[in-house]
Amino acid sequence: MAGQTTVREHLRETRLLPMLIERLAVGAEARLREIRLRALKDAPDAFASTFDDAASRPPENWERQLEQLATFVATSGGCDLGLVRGAYHDHIKERGYLISMWVAPEARRRGVGSDLVDAVIEWAKGQELNRLLLDVAETNAAAIAFYTRKGFVPNGVLGQLPPPRDHIREIQMAMPL
What we know:
The protein is of the alpha+beta class. It is 34% helix and 31% strand. The radius of gyration is 16 Å and the shape is globular.
């Protein structure tokens, strides 16, 4: 497509531009949908949702997600580089979850993931949560090492993704706040 730059080209051109972490609000449903679909296409085995499921969701669903989840996007020069969300625990009011973590392949190993995790940690502290949890595929050694460097430790809780990827086991990691 003539005249359009790819994310890779954009990153090459904007290496010196600062990266910003932005919290999305209601009204950014199309942007959230685009980033989430990119994540699901890039790393389908890292998330409970499937690409097809997410792609078929109506706009109201994306709006509800923005109302219920603290949604942070890393951006540089107007290009979205990653996504992470914070959620409240369903049953324990002092706990929260770090979910939906994704960094564009072209932006990995540039501190984007670290800044996104920090945004959720700050959100959780601001909500007076005392523990942050996350689930990660037990075979994703790079992600486990990354979360360990950020201060998360396995807490012994095991799970698995829902069908059609129920063969993927997850470990839960926790960070006291």
